[in-house]
Amino acid sequence: MANELFKEGGPHNIRKTGPTQYNMTVSLPTDEDGRTARECPKEECSPGYFKVKNGTGITGGQEFAYCPYCRNQAVPNDFFTKEQLRYAKDILQQEAFKAVENRFANALGLDRAGKKKIGGGFLSIEMSLNPSSKPIIRRPFEKEVRRDVICPHCGLYHSVYGLATWCADCGQDIFLTHVEAELSVVRAMLGDVERRRELLGSRVAAKDLENCLEDTVSIFEAVLKVLVKRYQRQAGVAEEEVDGFFKKIGNAFQSVERTQEIFLTKVGILLFPECSSDEIHKLACIFEKRHPITHNLGVIDKKYIDKSRTTEEEGKEVSVSAIDIEDALILSMETFSSLHNRMCGKAVNEHIDSSS
After folding, report:
1. Which range of residues forms the domain containing residue 252?
2. Do the domain assignments include residue 72?
3. What span, in angstroms and rounded, lies between the C-alpha atoms of 246 and 254?
């Protein structure tokens, strides 16, 4: 054992596995919430970066893990981030440095202080080993990811960018779970409006409601974009054609009327097959309130009056209520669920069945 390069055991549980092979265990640091960073091994996947909470999801015997963005399937160890691999190499270099240093000391017969005295009397020689600085171990630099969701199938707590689609542990489609999480944030903001009205005044409360409406419209637009992109890719539409489609329509999905037309004529799917004309009209009117809020500090202008066909007076502030926004949230989620089932349901089941 004295001639071995690495000392077995220790904090990294070093084990000799062959004549010149050793096994070392490196524990990866987590963030303050106990989450570990992960990265899709496919270079072309963007954003590809996410985090998982240790102790949730599939905690034993996991054969494969999945990218929540592209559903790339690979063994769990393939999802290490570049920073984690660099961190492991830093630790390995430091352990190798210490091993070589000890090997030299043993070969020279140095004592624990790294010294050896030869001879005595009038002639003596003292040797000492002064190694260079040990390699520095730097913790992995990880990114901030704060869209958290719990998989309803396996219980994995994970964090992603934007609206991801797949569970990183079980590979199930949990897109609507991500959407519901976004809508719940708006509802939490709505639930705090009255407290902030009492604390900060009516103008702040009005701005809070306006912000909630803008967020609702933004979620509506973002979800429909994701669904249409997925639908087109499943149909084999070339990526440049998908990009061209969205460049052409611009921000049309912020308008209920324009969205209906695009879905019918360009996508070939009814947007609101289960909603009454009154419900569709109500959602359109609520969404149109975003125009004066975004472009005119909430003051009603002629363009808003013409588009919404409202009886509200020009020059006055547009009226937004918590009930309006809650109605919009309910109608939006019903629409998302219906579209997801009609546009992705069959492909989802085939995808999962083929990989089982």
Report:
1. 182-355
2. no
3. 13
> Could you give the number of structural domains in the chain?
1
Q: At what angle do helices 175-191 and 193-200 cross, to 10 degrees?
A: 30
* pLDDT tens string 223-268: 999 999 999 999 999 999 999 999 999 999 999 999 999 999 999 9
Q: Quick check: is 67 in a domain?
A: no
29: in domain: no
In-domain check, residue 112: no
How confident is the model over 13-59, as pLDDT tens digits? Answer: 778 788 778 788 888 889 988 999 999 999 999 999 999 998 999 98
Place of tokens 């509506």: 220
Does the global pTM surpass 0.85?
Answer: no
